[in-house]
Amino acid sequence: MRVAMFLCVFVFTVFGIGGRAFASANTREFKVGDVVVWAIADSLGERDMSVFIGLDPEVQKQYAPSGKSPSAIMAFLVKTKSETILIDVGMNGLFPAGLAEISADVTKIFITHMHGDHINGLVKDGKKVFNGAKVLASVREREFWLDEKSVEKFPDRKAGLDSARAIMGLYGSDALSFEYGDIVARGDDFELKAIDAHGHTPGHTVFMLTSAGERLLFWADLSHAASLQFPRPDINATYDMNPEEAAKARLHFMDMAATEKLTIAGVHLPFPGVGTVEKADSGYIYKTR
């Protein structure tokens, strides 16, 4: 196995946002330059290898002999001097009791893409969760998921398409978009840039956070099973809507992260969803931070 896992200690963390407290065992706090980032686990579990396209049994045996790979559904909260930002919101509402305490402080929510495990947490009991926040996705992503004709190309995605339109409809004029390459948020202590990572979905986006000379790449869904896809970035999951482009994006950003020694934060990386990438003789090695 080419994934190096460092011991993760689950610490009961309490942090304050706007004078409020949010506590959970499944959070991890770290700094990027002058800003604070919290990795928040919506759920923890394992990825079944049956979701990978054409996976050779011998390859599975080599990298995931149990037939499963550690995974999660993560979201990331960024606290700067001027803003409280969420990158994705999970499937189930991130720790509802805690989320109720901080939702009023969130100013912007950047959606990497509109699969349910990234946007369903925007709504609870048919109502908006984040009444004071703008919700932003790439122009390409919004155009695909909000276009009723998209179901003609992807009839198997009808439920997800209907759900995305309903959720974004609740946010109305607060649901906005950005172009790839845009600086989508900026303050005295940080900058957040949207980067094209299409393939997994038509408008799949990764974000680069820069603060005081340090960088963090929000990895989104470039990988779904670290133990398999870092050594074999050519392997796609059934969730990848354009497998060829998804593999191309995965390889590109793995090489970038390894070459530029970036820290990455991924929604489906093993908890805490944060780590680094190294080149190997074949493929790459992911190391949990």
Description of the molecule:
The chain is an alpha+beta fold. It has one domain: Ribonuclease Z/Hydroxyacylglutathione hydrolase-like (Metallo-beta-lactamase, Chain A, 4-Layer Sandwich), CATH 3.60.15.10. The protein has helices at residues 57-63, 96-102, 116-119, 139-146, 150-153, 158-171, 226-229, 243-259; strands at residues 13-17, 20-24, 27-32, 35-48, 68-79, 84-87, 108-110, 123-124, 127-128, 134-138, 175-178, 183-187, 190-196, 205-211, 214-220, 263-266, 274-279, 284-288. A 7-stranded mixed beta sheet has the order 3-4-5-6-7-10-11. The chain has a 7-stranded mixed beta sheet with strand order 12-13-14-15-16-17-18. A hairpin with a 2-residue loop joins strand 14 (205-211) and strand 15 (214-220). The protein starts with 12 loop residues before the first strand and ends with a strand. Residues 1-17 and 19-23 have low confidence and may be disordered.
The geometry reads as globular
Report the CATH topology name. Metallo-beta-lactamase, Chain A
Estimated radius of gyration: 18 Å
As laid out across the biggest beta sheet, the strand order is 3-4-5-6-7-10-11
Which bin fits the share of residues in helices?
Answer: 10-25%
**Average pLDDT over all residues:** 89
Corresponding CATH superfamily = Ribonuclease Z/Hydroxyacylglutathione hydrolase-like
H/E element order: EEEEHEEHEHEEEHHHEEEEEHHEEE
CATH architecture: 4-Layer Sandwich
